C-alpha cells in the first residue's frame, strides 16, 4: 500500500485543492532489476503548473486520474538490482507519492552530505541550483563587474542567482520579492538592494535599487518585472528568461512588456531556456556550488511542509509566494 | 547658395509637413582639405523618426532649427583635398540638403557600377543592405534549411532579408507587407508566401503562410507582428530585432507581444542590434550581395521621389509604407 496525489481536474486559472486527489494504491510486486523506494522529500516547483494544462510543451502534460510527477529523494527499502541496496539514498522523478516501485535505471544514487539535508538534491544541488547556475553564467553570459537584477529572488532559483552573482564578482546584486520579510532575508543573503514589488510599481522600485542600470536580468516573473528590467538595462544587456510565474495562472495574457522596442537601440539579448537541456553542466555546478555550500559561503533556505496530504497546499502556496527558498514537502 | 531641410518642431506622434522647414542658406567658402559636394540622391529611413524626439539613444537627436542628417550620394563639384576631384562620386552623412561643404575625411569615394544607380549605395550596397545581411546571418544566426519570416518585407531591408535567405538555402521565406500590390511584388522576388497584414490578423495570416512554423523572424515592425512570430517560432527559434516601425509614431505603447513567456519553453533567442556596430562586415556584404546584384540574382527595388522640397513627404510616406523597396529622394 502507498498513497499518492492524482490530478483530479485541470485548473483554469489558480489551482484549488479540488484539482488534487489523495488516493491509496496497491504497490506492484518488485521484479528483477527494480527497487522499492520510500520517498523522504518531494519537490513542488512552479513549472508543474504548466504541466497541469492540456498543452504540449517541453514536457508532456500530466494525465488526469494519474499521479503527478516531480523530483523526489527517497531511501531504497528493497532492491532487486545490482549496485543499489536497502538504505541507499536516491534521487528520481516519482514525487507526489509515498512509495514507488521502479526500474533501478530510473533512480540515481546520491551521497549524503555531512550537515546538509538530502533535500538539497531537490534544491541547491539539483534542478533549481542548475537553473540558477546555467541561466546566469551560460544564458545571460554573466561576467565580473555586471550589475544583476533577479526577480522572485527569495525563491529557490532566485536566491541562488543572487548569491552566485555576488560570489562571481557582480558590481551590484538587486532582488525583488513579494514581502518585507523576504526582502529582509535577501539583505542577509548579501544582496546589495532588494525591494518588495507590492510596494509601488516595479519600475519605480527598480529605479531606486539600480540607479546606474543593470547589465543582466534573470527573469522568473515576466510582465511588469520584465518591462521594468528592459527600461533599466544598459546597452548590451542580457536577459535570461527562466520563468513567468505571473502568467502561469493568468486567464488573460498580460499587457506587458510594452517597451520591447527598446531592445533594438540597447542591443539587448533575451534568451529563454529550459534547464533540462543543460544537464551536461550539472557536474560543474555541483563542484562549484557544492564547494561554496560546504564552506558556508552560500545559503540555501528551505520552506518545509510535512505530509503528502499537504503537498497540494504546498504547491498552491508556492505559486502564491508563501515560500522562502526551496519549497519542500517532507514525507 | 544651397537649400536644406531643417527640423522646425519635434513631432508628437505622426510627423506633419509643418515639422520641416525648407530654407536657403549661404554655403561657406571652401577651405584647404575640404570639398564641395552636390547631392544627387538622399536617403529617408525609418530610424530618423527616433532622432526627431528629444531622447538620447544610440544616435543623438536632431537639433531644432538645424538641418536633418542622413545618408546621401553626391558628386564632387570642387575639391581642395588630395585624392578627390571634381566629378567623383561620394557617399556621406549630409543628406537633406542640396549641397554641402565639408572635410574630405567625412566623405567616402564610391565607384560607379555599370548598370546600377549610384543610389544603390544608400540601399542594397549601403546601410539597409548591411542591416539585412548582418541581421539575418549574424544576429539571427540563419542557417541553411531555416524557415524565415520577415515583416516590412517590401521595404528596403525586408526585401533583401527575404532574398538573401532564399539565396542562402532557406526552406521557406515568408514576408508581410501592407498592400496587395506589395504582396504580389514579394512573390515576384521569390518569397514562398507573402500576406497583407491589413487583411485579418497577423497571427491568422502567418499561421496560413507558415503552417510548419518558422525558425527565424526578422522584425522590422514589433507589436502584433512580434506576437504572431513568437507563436509560430519553433523550438530554438531566433529573432533579429531590427526595428519597431509600429511604435515609432505611437503615443501609447502597444499592448503586445503578450506571449513573451513562450520564449522560455521554446528556448527562443531575441537580439536587438544597430547596424552601426557592424561596419566591419560591410566588405563581406558588398562582396556577396554586390555579386548577386551584378549577376541579376537579387533585385533592389526603389521608390524615387524628386526634389528636396518633397523630402518631408517622402519621409512621411515611408512611415506610412508608401514605398516599395528603398525610398530615395533624387535631387
Automatic annotation (TrEMBL), chains A, B:
What are the entry keywords?
A: Oxidoreductase
Write out the coiled-coil annotation as residue ranges: none
Q: Which GO terms describe its molecular function?
A: oxidoreductase activity, acting on the CH-CH group of donors, NAD or NADP as acceptor
Tell me which residues make up the Enoyl reductase (ER) domain.
15-329
Give the InterPro entries listed for this entry.
ADH-like_C, ADH_N_2, ER, GroES-like_sf, MDR_fam, NAD(P)-bd_dom_sf
Top-level taxon in the UniProt lineage: Bacteria
SMART domains xref list: PKS_ER (SM00829)
Which Pfam families does this UniProt record tie to the protein? ADH_N_2 (PF16884), ADH_zinc_N (PF00107)
PANTHER family on file: PROSTAGLANDIN REDUCTASE, PROSTAGLANDIN REDUCTASE 1
Q: What is the official name of this protein in its record?
A: NADP-dependent oxidoreductase
Q: State the organism's lineage.
A: Bacteria, Bacillati, Actinomycetota, Actinomycetes, Streptosporangiales
Amino acid at each position: 500500500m502507498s498513497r499518492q496525489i492524482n490530478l483530479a481536474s485541470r485548473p483554469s486559472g489558480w489551482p484549488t485543492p479540488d484539482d488534487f486527489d489523495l488516493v491509496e494504491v496497491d504497490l506492484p510486486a518488485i521484479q528483477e532489476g527494480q527497487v522499492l523506494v520510500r520517498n523522504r522529500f518531494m519537490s513542488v516547483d512552479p513549472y508543474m503548473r504548466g504541466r497541469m494544462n492540456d498543452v504540449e510543451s517541453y514536457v508532456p502534460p500530466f494525465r488526469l486520474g494519474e499521479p503527478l510527477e516531480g523530483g523526489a529523494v527517497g531511501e531504497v527499502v528493497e532492491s532487486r538490482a545490482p549496485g543499489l541496496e536497502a538504505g541507499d539514498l536516491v534521487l528520481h522523478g516519482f514525487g507526489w507519492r509515498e512509495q514507488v516501485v521502479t526500474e533501478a535505471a530510473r533512480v540515481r544514487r546520491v551521497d549524503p552530505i555531512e550537515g546538509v539535508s538530502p533535500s538539497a538534491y531537490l534544491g541547491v544541488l539539483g534542478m533549481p541550483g542548475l537553473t540558477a547556475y546555467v541561466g546566469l553564467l551560460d544564458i545571460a553570459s554573466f561576467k565580473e563587474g555586471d550589475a544583476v537584477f533577479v526577480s522572485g529572488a527569495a525563491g529557490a532559483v532566485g536566491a541562488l542567482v543572487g548569491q552566485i552573482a555576488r560570489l562571481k564578482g557582480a558590481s551590484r546584486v538587486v532582488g525583488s520579492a513579494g514581502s518585507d520579510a523576504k526582502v529582509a532575508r535577501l539583505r542577509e543573503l548579501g544582496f546589495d538592494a532588494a525591494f518588495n514589488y507590492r510596494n509601488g510599481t516595479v519600475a519605480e522600485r527598480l529605479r531606486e535599487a539600480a540607479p546606474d542600470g543593470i547589465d543582466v536580468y534573470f527573469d522568473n516573473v515576466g510582465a511588469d518585472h520584465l518591462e521594468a528590467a528592459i527600461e533599466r538595462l544598459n546597452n548590451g544587456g542580457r536577459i535570461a528568461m527562466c520563468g513567468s510565474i505571473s502568467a502561469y495562472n493568468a486567464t488573460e495574457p498580460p499587457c506587458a512588456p510594452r517597451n520591447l522596442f527598446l531592445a533594438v537601440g540597447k542591443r539587448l539579448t533575451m534568451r529563454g531556456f529550459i534547464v533540462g537541456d543543460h544537464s551536461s553542466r550539472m557536474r560543474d555546478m555541483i563542484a562549484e556550488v557544492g564547494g561554496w555550500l560546504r564552506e558556508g559561503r552560500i545559503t540555501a533556505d528551505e520552506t518545509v511542509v510535512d505530509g503528502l496530504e499537504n503537498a497540494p497546499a504546498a504547491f498552491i502556496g508556492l505559486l502564491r509566494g508563501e515560500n522562502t527558498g526551496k519549497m519542500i514537502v517532507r514525507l
